[in-house]
Design brief:
Number of helices: 21
Strand order of the largest sheet: 13-16-19-11-20
Radius of gyration: 27 Å
Helix content: 25-40%
Distance between the termini: 78 Å
Strand content: 15-25%
Shape: elongated
Number of strands: 20
Structural class: alpha/beta
CATH superfamily of the largest domain: P-loop containing nucleotide triphosphate hydrolases
CATH architecture of the largest domain: 3-Layer(aba) Sandwich
Length: 499
């Protein structure tokens, strides 16, 4: 007799269905797991054996074969415990096979029969809904799964109560899903004194999804500005919220099934490795750039990151994806993030600061800034020098516009882009193609002449040329202008260091 149930494995954030097939036949007693299992899956037979013993059941004196199909995919993770147990119970007639034939099951077992929560239940619930399957999961994961309306969820804290639930003898009320508490909602731009030009640059960046480099001495307010970026970005759409929450679910960052309602803000330390930033590892997990999907990746002390780590950002910035190559597969995570990088002008931080000049200042600044390669700088749209705030500005009670005021202008600009790209594969100006720019003829003649003059004078690369147009288009959207005029282009070029 063969009993079957379905479970899943992750390939990036995509789901691959796995059939768990269990056969109890005559032969030398024992439990054999086949189908390319990893160590955690192989060890599940001992957890299953102990959990069954804890609830008063024992394995029959038969040869039990557990096949994980398709056999050529690597199976990893402790979430195989529960589907293996349920299929085994059906194979030995403790459960009716019909009760699990249309289900996807995930869960880890403890030796006493308790069912532990696992990672990635939100995207698994989405997969179950799309494939018209019910979901069997730990009770602690039920709130997360309930965000997907229309999927039938059967959950329990222990194996005994789950069996009773499947047989209809017991009904367990799952906890209600919750929203994640906003962290950055209390941060406001009017708390940052002075820095009008920096605030303008971040407004443009927020409106068009552009990357920013803030260069200034310690204490100028670079981190304060970056941390408040979230407060002016538009709220997440339902689709974006589910997509971001799915990534964080795979990483184990969704606590008590709390769906994310705020754009992520990730701030990795400059000692972070390439794998921590891009993703990967023995068991492939999303990196910081994917956890910052649809949000902000703040990289403070930008030149202090290793050269290899910084260079690994090139492809994700352009494509919006983190591609992790393996011998047997290429795994892709979404990574449409906004990069805000902050740096000191030199190693000691006081280059061109009259009050505290570094010694020897020329070599200090040159050697420090050479840590950043041209290709990386070329992919950052807005380059800004952030000077120290004067004591007069610090003592002023007026901090300027609030985040709400700036966010309103950003919202209008984003709505304009949504309407413009309604039937196109773009969300913001930073993602439009060079062909679109050429075909739509969005530049006025004076703006194009100014760009060509600046390109010749400052030897701008082709990438910088087109990125400057995208920034100018965002400035035009903020001004509610149908085309890019000379003033819009001049401001865009100013933020590239071209005058």
């Amino acid at each position: 007799m063969v009993a079957k149930i379905q479970t899943t494995i992750f390939q990036g954030i995509d789901i691959a269905p796995i059939d768990v097939q269990v056969q109890a036949a005559n032969g030398i007693p024992g439990v054999h797991i086949v189908g390319l299992p990893d160590k955690a899956v192989t060890e599940s037979r001992e957890r299953v054996r102990s959990a069954l013993y804890a609830i008063g059941l024992s394995l029959p004196a038969k040869k039990i074969t557990i096949n994980l199909s398709p056999a050529d995919l690597q199976k990893e993770g402790s979430h195989f415990d529960l589907p293996i147990t349920l299929a085994l119970l059906a194979a030995i007639n403790v459960l009716d096979k019909e009760l699990i034939s249309d289900a996807i099951a995930v869960g880890e077992l403890e030796l006493d029969g308790s069912i532990r929560p696992v990672l990635g239940v939100l995207p698994i619930a989405m997969h179950a809904f799309k494939n018209n399957k019910k979901l069997i999961c730990p009770l602690d994961n039920a709130a997360e799964a309930k965000w997907i309306e229309g999927v039938e969820i059967q959950s329990a804290p222990t194996l005994t109560s789950l069996i009773q639930t499947l047989k209809g003898e017991k009904s367990i009320l799952a906890p209600l899903p919750q929203l994640h508490t906003k962290k950055h909602s209390r941060l406001d731009f009017n708390e940052v004194k002075g820095q009008k030009l920096a605030k303008r640059a971040l407004e443009i960046a927020a409106a068009g999804g552009h990357n920013v480099l803030l260069n200034g001495p310690p204490g100028a307010g670079k981190s304060m500005l970056a941390e408040r970026m979230i407060s002016i970005l538009p709220p997440l759409s339902p689709h974006e919220s589910l997509e971001i929450s799915s990534i964080h679910s795979i990483s184990g960052n969704l606590k008590q099934g709390q769906l994310l309602q705020e754009r992520p803000f990730r701030n990795p330390h400059h000692s972070a490795s390439k794998v921590a930033l891009i993703g990967g590892g023995i068991k492939v997990r999303p990196g910081e750039i994917s956890l910052a999907h649809h949000g902000v990746l703040f990289m403070d002390e930008f030149p202090e990151y290793s050269r290899d780590t910084l260079e690994s950002l090139r492809q994700p910035i352009e494509s919006g994806q983190a591609v992790i190559a393996r011998a047997n597969a290429h795994i892709t995570f979404p990574a449409k993030f906004q990069l805000i990088a902050a740096m000191n002008p030199c190693k000691c931080g006081y280059f061109n600061t009259p009050q505290a000049q570094c010694q020897p200042h020329r070599n200090c600044a040159q050697s420090y800034q050479q840590r950043l390669s041209g290709p990386i700088l070329d992919r950052i749209d807005l380059h800004l020098t952030v000077d120290r705030v004067t004591p007069h500005a610090l003592s002023s009670l007026d901090g300027g516009e609030s985040s709400q005021q700036i966010a309103e202008r950003v919202k209008i600009a984003r709505q304009k882009q949504t309407e413009r790209y309604q039937n196109l594969p773009y969300e913001t100006n930073v993602r439009i193609s060079n062909r679109y720019i050429e075909e739509e003829n969005i530049l006025s003649k004076p703006a194009k002449d100014l760009l060509n003059q600046a390109s010749e004078r400052f030897h701008l690369s082709a990438r910088t040329y087109y990125r400057s147009i995208k920034v100018a288009l965002t400035i035009a959207d903020l001004a509610q202008s149908p085309n890019i005029n000379e003033d819009h282009m001049a401001e865009a070029l100013m933020f590239r260091g071209a005058f």
